[in-house]
Design brief:
With 327 residues, the chain is mainly alpha-helical. It is built from 16 helices and 11 strands.
Length: 327
């Protein structure tokens, strides 16, 4: 259907000013919707008078519009295929084939059997042809939010969906609490996996994805490959500065960073030796200390042994084992 022509035909028999008001209110010609206030000022009338003219125009053309049963049956078929409701932006794009969204909005507004639910703090605006679908959608959304809070990780539609995936996706897309990232994974809106804030969050995602410590130059390079990144080149010095300042990251070697949540301890080699001895609650051999420290730091044996010689912190007993020097 040529929706532009369809809408023009419905308006052609209206008085010129009435047709102009409706065209401008819905942006049927220019693509830009105008407010009651702006239209009223151009005609030298009040916004309430503009509203009245619009309403009178609808009363004249609405019976004729509703005779187009084939078109509205198609609209209904599409909405029903998504479980009885669809987020407004997405529905208008589908029905308008990417170019006639304003015409679709105008026709739905004047059609029969369709209802627009306005945007609020929790939901985006959406259209429905079955009001029973609304409580169903809210139940699905609440269930998904509960699962996210329990699992604390992003999920694909296949992992998340219960029942018909088309219905499920249509229901959760109206929620402002649930968002989808560029990798088609869903999560809660404030999660950095959904909407990372700045270099440090992107560095976190890189390490999380690679699951191993990385040099800051590697991290800088990999940030540019993230789907969130508009910048393809990130300055290594900037990345290094962010890693140093953020306590989510632990320096585990020369320029090597890991995530604290992986179990890495803060501090230099001396601190790691001290913590290892304190946790053991007994003297440890040289090899035991080497093993424990090398789980925490990517350093040479000599570096660890040199720190062990610090008599201000550590003592060696007659069996060659090491312990914390008591104050």
């Amino acid at each position: 259907m040529n929706l532009q022509k369809v809408c023009e035909n419905y308006l052609k028999d209206l008085p010129q000013r009435t047709a102009d008001v409706i065209e401008r209110r819905f942006g049927l010609k220019t693509g830009q919707k105008e407010t009651l206030e702006a239209i009223g000022q151009s005609f030298g009338i009040t916004r309430e008078r503009v509203r009245q003219i619009e309403r009178e125009g609808f009363e004249k053309i609405r019976p004729e519009i509703r005779k187009n049963e084939e078109m509205f049956a198609y609209f209904k078929q599409i909405i029903s295929s998504f479980g009885g409701l669809k987020k407004e932006d997405n529905l208008l794009d589908i029905l308008g084939q990417g170019k006639n969204q304003n015409q679709v909005f105008f026709l739905l507004t004047n059609g029969q059997g369709f209802e627009r639910i306005q945007e609020d703090d929790n939901f985006y605006a959406f259209w429905t042809d079955d009001k029973n679908s609304i409580p169903k959608a809210k139940k699905v959304i609440n269930s998904a939010i509960s699962r996210f809070k329990k699992d604390r990780k992003i999920l694909s539609l296949d992992e998340l969906a219960e029942g018909d995936k088309e219905f499920f996706a249509s229901y959760i897309e109206i929620s402002k609490e649930i968002q989808k990232n560029p990798e088609e994974k869903y999560g809660l809106k404030n999660w950095l996996e959904i909407k990372p804030r700045g270099i440090k969050d992107k560095a976190y995602l890189v390490l999380k994805k690679k699951e191993q410590p990385l040099h800051f130059t590697q991290i800088a390079s990999l940030i540019g490959e993230l789907p969130f990144s508009a910048q393809k080149k990130v300055h290594t010095a900037t990345v290094h500065n962010e890693l140093i300042k953020d306590d989510r990251f632990i320096l585990v070697g020369r320029g090597l960073y890991a995530l604290k949540e992986w179990g890495y301890e803060t501090g230099v080699v001396k601190d790691i030796i001290f913590k290892s001895l304190k946790q053991a609650k007994r003297p440890l051999t040289k090899n035991e200390i080497l093993e424990k420290v090398q789980k925490q730091r990517f350093v040479k044996e000599n570096t660890i042994l040199l720190n062990l010689q610090n008599k201000e912190y550590f003592v060696r007993d007659e069996k060659g084992r090491y312990n914390i020097r008591e104050a």
